[in-house]
Amino acid sequence: MHIHILGICGTFMGGLAALAREAGHKVTGCDSGVYPPMSDQLRALGIDLIEGYSADQMAFAPDVFVIGNVVSRVRLADGSAKYPLMEAILNSGRPYTSGPQWLSGHVLHHPTHHATGPRHVLAVAGTHGKTTTTAMLAWILEHAGLMPGFLVGGVPLNFGMSARLGVGNTFVIEADEYDTAFFDKRSKFVHYRPRTVILNNLEFDHADIFDNLAAIEQQFHHLLRTVPSQGRVVVNAAEASLQRVLAQGCWSEQVLFGNGPHNQGGFTAQGEPNDFKVLKASQTVAYVQWEINGVHNQLNALAAIAAAEHVGVTPEVAARALTGFHNVKRRMEVRGVLHRSGGDITVYDDFAHHPTAIHTTVDGLRRQLNSAGKNSERILAIFEPRSNTMKLGTMTAQLPWSLEQADLAFCHASGLDWDARAALAPMGARAQVADTFDQLLAQVKAAARPGDHLLCMSNGGFGNIHAKLLEALKA
User: Fold this and answer.
1) Whether 454 contacts 448, CB under 8 Å
2) What are the tens digits of pLDDT across the range 177-218?
3) Domain of residue 94, CATH code
């Protein structure tokens, strides 16, 4: 089969392309701004990439066009289509489908040569922690010898790739609640039909497509409706929103994790986030000692352990696997260290972009420094409100709270329709706002001193700020 992918350089669609190529399909694709590293990864797989969405790509004559959710039917100011290729597809009557739909039919529920039957899909959903927890779960199954397939919205350092088919009966997938395509406004995850699903947490996000939290809860309940009665739903016990989702109906085994009034027989942790016992029904069943920090990652680990148990991996084996887990690129990834006589300057890259994620990331770094006896070392939080939700300004009131553990905060405010200075005013002199990228670099360079930790947070490339900061500070 020949598939032509529109929006191929996105994290999800790029992973889908890699899986399709590995499965033996001919894959081509297009995107706007075809750039590394995804472009390099795809070309290394023998996938031809075209810049832009010109209608002349119809000449590829694929068996099916696979449409990413970046594609819309928007008209430009001159009345022309923003995506002329999509208009040509519709006018021609040629077959097309969404990425999640194609993935479901040709990978998730299509046995491999080595599998003995339909695959057992393990899906990881939630507002935060999906990528890390998916990577953890895939690594646990790999360590246990199950050789899973996986599709992760990042690059797990243990694997060095974001997607692979695998050869066993299991497939682990990051299950996003964002909409499927312009012609299918259901959440992506309803296509996956998992037998095991993790509901990590749930709060308001994606303000560009959801009106309120109740609308997202409804989509999560649609996901629950697809889990079979012999399936397992792994749920964060502390999330009231997830309890509301369960109250709408659940037909599968429920296993809770974390602290919460409803968790009587589920999984809990006892100890520090990087050194803790795993308990099930108050009985110690495993022990995790690893280099990963943060209470959120401790919860991610409990969720992954509970999900892995459903496919026969004991908590003890899962915990041993996590000892060797190395996280995901862009999750508190150290991009460089400058050695100074008064203390090293460390530059980090993190994907945090929602206020809760920013708060969790900064708080996790603060706890890590405190536990290492580095209470006096400063955290400089450098961020851009780049996600659709943040651009809309619906969560500006939460920004000061999200940055409360940072000593200084620097916001790149270019292109925003709301006043970043007013939003950060409660932080006083601790917050600075830059209207240009060069101004942002200058502000951070002027403030940085030996011993500082420069935490860069964005769900985009952020202008390669990490390398530019290191270069500027070396001077």
Assistant:
1) yes
2) 888 999 999 989 999 999 999 999 888 766 567 678 888 899
3) 3.40.50.720
How many domains is the chain built from?
Answer: 3
For residue 348, the surrounding DSSP H or E stretch is: strand 345-350
Per the CB < 8 A criterion, the answer to whether 26 and 1 are in contact is yes
Computed over every residue of the chain, the mean pLDDT equals 90
Domain boundary among 296, 323, 350: 323
Give the Cα separation of 463 and 113 in Å (integer): 43
Domain assignment present for 104: no
Is residue 31 in a domain? yes
Q: Which residues of 107-139 are buried (b: 16+ CB within 10 A; e: fewer)?
A: bbeeebeebeeebbbbbbbbbbbbbbbbbbbbb
Q: What pTM does this model have?
A: 0.81
How many angstroms separate the first and last alpha carbons of the chain? 53
Indicate if 93 and 119 belong to the same structural domain.
no
Q: How far is CA 300 from the centre of its chain?
A: 13
Q: Collapsing DSSP states into helix, strand and coil, what is residue 375?
A: coil
Tracing tokens 């060069």 back to the chain, one arrives at 438
Closest among 83, 123, 250, 107 to 166, alpha carbons compared = 107
Domain span including residue 83 = 2-99
d(CA 431, CA 419): 13
The token duo for 22 is: 């590995």
